[in-house]
């Protein structure tokens, strides 16, 4: 009988202790929920990309567009005009403001006057340099893209640009525009411009970029070429807003087909490419901006969304147009957190965050997420990474990601040392960069959690 009483007492004590422990654990669980904000904002790596030469840009602009012709870059062999190009395009200013660049290197840009966009020294060194033209597109010079000497010098120019501009991720996107009028991979053969050579020759205006060291840059091609699919490249559509042209572009992406410039079947289906590689382009010049942003606005928005477009430039919506913010809301990612859960006992705590992307495209860069604990004055007491891959949060999907909270964030009695904050860090600046779409925090690049 005595043994039975002793055992019963022990069981009651252990049971009570268990209840205390469970109760203590549950009491150390905190949960915070957030509401999605529909506010239209600018964010890094997406949105409108006006010309980098513009003196004034909208506050929502985080991307600038830069195109450089070979004649501008290297007027004399081996002598590159770095400082002049950087000054004209305000590289120092945009870097200091934490903005990034969409870049295109062009060999043929039609204008109203006779000219050529390859350097004189190069033109004079080629046995068969190319052909002058005067068409409805404008006037200019179409290089002979099959010329081996042209290809060799082109590779050297790309390597020089990588050495100068490729080390910090300032150039976020490179549109591979080395071929055709405006770098759009077509020439106006209907008005007498010589045809492009076989695609095997044209690939020599892609491969130098893929082997050059452009840290943090992603490459885009004008069409879904075999090269684009093989190398996981993005695509750009310079006819955004044109229904017929965009439909054709999307048809290539969905089904592949023949490249009308060479007659080869080098366009391939790559319908899911946007899940890992960016989509860019610019609004068409064939339709007035007034029309695109008013009577054609719903169609313009529809095709931009269907294309999963992240950025448009340099032809962008006018700030005072009725559709400016509506179209901006259709571009790129819209990341937000719906729930944060902090639980655990003592210094053993985990943080779970439920992420969403309400946009049309992923966040394409492998930027880090950083946690900070700060005191009442805002002083950072400690910081640590929150391990996750932002690129995997696809549109209309959610992910709950859990990390152990560093013990240094927690006091001996199990409380946070201060307020817990989260930020997405731009490696170029090592500063918080991305605004998350939670009501009340849309203007901040640092999110308050607890």
- The neighbouring-strand order within the major sheet is 3-4-7-8-9-12
Number of domains: 2
Strand content: 25-35%
Low-confidence stretches: 19-27
How large is the radius of gyration?
27 Å
Name of the level-1 CATH class of the largest domain: Alpha Beta
From the N-terminal CA to the C-terminal CA, the straight-line distance is: 53 Å
What number is the mean pLDDT?
94
User: What is the helix tally?
Assistant: 13
Please state the second-level CATH architecture of the largest domain.
Alpha-Beta Barrel
SS elements, strand count = 21
Helix content estimate: 25-40%
Largest sheet: 6 strands, parallel
Principal-axis shape: elongated
**Computed structural class:** alpha/beta
Question: What is the CATH T-level topology of the largest domain?
Answer: TIM Barrel
Domain DUF4832: 234-427
Protein name: DUF4832 domain-containing protein
Pfam families: DUF4832 (PF16116)
Q: In summary, what is this structure?
A:
This protein is of the alpha/beta class and 450 residues long. It folds into two domains: 28-38 and 334-448, Immunoglobulin-like, CATH 2.60.40; 47-328, Alpha-Beta Barrel (TIM Barrel), CATH 3.20.20. 25% of the residues lie in helices and 26% in strands.
């Amino acid at each position: 009988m005595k043994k039975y009483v002793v055992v019963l007492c022990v069981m009651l004590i252990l049971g009570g202790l268990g209840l205390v422990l469970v109760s203590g654990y549950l009491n150390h669980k905190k949960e915070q929920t957030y509401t999605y904000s529909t506010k239209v904002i600018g964010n890094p790596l997406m949105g409108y990309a006006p010309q980098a030469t513009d003196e004034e840009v909208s506050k929502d602009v985080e991307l600038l567009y830069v195109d450089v012709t070979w004649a501008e870059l290297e007027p004399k062999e081996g002598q590159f005009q770095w400082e002049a190009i950087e000054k004209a395009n305000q590289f120092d200013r945009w870097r200091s403001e934490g903005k990034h660049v969409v870049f295109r290197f062009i060999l043929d840009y039609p204008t109203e006057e006779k000219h050529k966009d390859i350097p004189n020294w190069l033109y004079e060194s080629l046995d068969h340099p190319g052909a002058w033209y005067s068409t409805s597109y404008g006037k200019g010079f179409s290089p002979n893209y099959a010329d081996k000497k042209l290809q060799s010098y082109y590779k050297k120019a790309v390597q020089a640009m990588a050495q100068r501009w490729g080390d910090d991720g300032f150039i976020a996107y490179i549109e591979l525009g080395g071929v055709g009028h405006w770098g759009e991979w077509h020439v106006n053969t209907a008005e007498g411009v010589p045809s492009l050579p076989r695609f095997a020759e044209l690939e020599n205006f892609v491969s130098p970029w893929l082997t050059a060291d452009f840290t943090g840059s992603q490459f885009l091609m004008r069409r879904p070429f075999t090269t684009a699919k093989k190398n996981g490249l993005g695509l750009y559509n310079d006819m955004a807003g044109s229904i017929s042209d965009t439909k054709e572009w999307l048809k290539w992406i969905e089904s592949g087909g023949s490249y009308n410039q060479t007659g080869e079947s080098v366009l391939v289906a790559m319908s899911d490419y946007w899940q890992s590689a960016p989509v860019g382009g610019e609004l068409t010049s064939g339709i007035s901006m007034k029309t695109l942003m008013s009577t054609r606005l719903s169609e313009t928005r529809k095709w931009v969304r269907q294309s999963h477009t992240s950025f448009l430039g340099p032809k962008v919506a006018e700030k005072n147009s009725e559709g400016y913010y509506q179209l901006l809301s259709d571009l790129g990612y819209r990341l937000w957190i719906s729930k944060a859960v902090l639980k655990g006992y003592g210094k053993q705590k985990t943080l779970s965050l439920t992420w969403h992307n309400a946009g049309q495209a992923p966040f394409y860069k492998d930027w880090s997420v950083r946690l900070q604990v700060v005191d009442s004055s805002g002083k950072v007491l400690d910081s640590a990474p929150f391990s996750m891959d932002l690129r995997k949060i696809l549109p209309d999907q959610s992910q709950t990601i859990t990390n152990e909270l560093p013990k240094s964030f927690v006091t001996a009695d199990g409380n946070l040392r201060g307020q817990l904050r989260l930020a997405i860090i731009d490696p170029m600046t090592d500063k918080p960069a991305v605004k998350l779409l939670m009501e009340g925090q849309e203007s901040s690049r640092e999110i308050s959690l607890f």
